[in-house]
């Protein structure tokens, strides 16, 4: 594994050799497969769904709302309504994101290239399917269903069809998981929100620990492979794509539908204002700090994703 005390690598220089990265990946696959077997649960019987969820309660702790720290001030009722809508947006983003990542993984499982990882990938797909179900189940039980997916972005396709293709695909998955696990890890222990919401966050965080660990080991290996396969010429383009994809993923948390539900007359203007707020930029940097450090140590880029 990468030494957490090592300084950032120069651009394009892997922190470990390709052989070392592959050895780390092989070790991680065995350990994570064992953990997935040990921690298996049936999502359809795992949760005790209440008849209703209190609409007078916070569904998300105020520090995690997209307006937190800005000059946008809400009455308590509107702030609570925003917490409801942003929880539904959060769960909906999981549903749409999981559906996309499952497809990307499914087309690779049991191919010669991914044969060593295929057993774990079965667990990965199964667990992500469980997550998609229970987040959608909450939205269907206690709301008007899952929020619609945003219009397809040009970023939805890989940046290249060359040696970086798999690196980009699994980086997108890793970015998605790191972003949302930041919230899962913290809201899973909340005593302010209804227990069923905290439980969904906590269960998802428990599984995502394995998925993030796998993702980092795989992305490391794919990075070294791409560099050794003549990918240096496209390196800067790929690095810029990854930075842009991180920005796009963070911005997905700011859904105008949520501001409209909280009573804002011009929700698109609200979204633009919040995304441009320097306080929110600091929050975004903190949310993605761990992932940013990973890519810098890998050698993908210097500086930061938001520079």
UniProtKB/TrEMBL annotation:
<dbReference type="InterPro" id="IPR025859">
    <property type="entry name" value="AurF/CmlI"/>
</dbReference>
<dbReference type="InterPro" id="IPR009078">
    <property type="entry name" value="Ferritin-like_SF"/>
</dbReference>
<protein>
    <submittedName>
        <fullName>Diiron oxygenase</fullName>
    </submittedName>
</protein>
<dbReference type="Pfam" id="PF11583">
    <property type="entry name" value="AurF"/>
</dbReference>
<dbReference type="InterPro" id="IPR012348">
    <property type="entry name" value="RNR-like"/>
</dbReference>
